[in-house]
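We give the chain.
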Amino acid sequence: MSVLDASRDAEQRDRFAYSVNSLPYRSRDRKVDGREILEKAGFLPADQHILIQILEQGSKSNGLNEKVDLREEGIEQFRAFAGDRIHAFTVEMRGWEWGAASISEAELRGYVGLSDDQVFALDRTDAPDKLIEDGSEIDLDDRGAERLKVVVRPLVTVKVNTKPVTMRFGWHTGADIKTAAIAQGV
């Protein structure tokens, strides 16, 4: 058997790809359960961990005995967490489950596919919606499920030499502010 044939044979045996916490894994079985995924990724004992599957439009927890079909289109993504709590939230009315009390804005931005001109806003009934700052942590530990919306990044006004300068919401360097001020005639 040539090296190329051996390589193809090995690839066929472990042909179903998936990732756990962004690290790649392969399986020869098309259907694997949550316990197998956690154990192969080194999360031991598996029953002390939560496995979350990232879906196209949300996420869901996978039980230890729940089978996952790795033959679905694309590479299945999972996140593993130590613990026993699942936190629920929505983004644009689509359900998400998470294994930690917070999720980074950057990570969720990547899963949802937000563009640079969009931000998350925490939907609140008792106060104005709260814009989520770039790079911050989104707290999921409050009572009830957090409801996040995707909104166009709003304009804000800052003062430069007592003159108003309009910029998009978010973190800016001094050079960014100076460039915007000059562009606006300040």
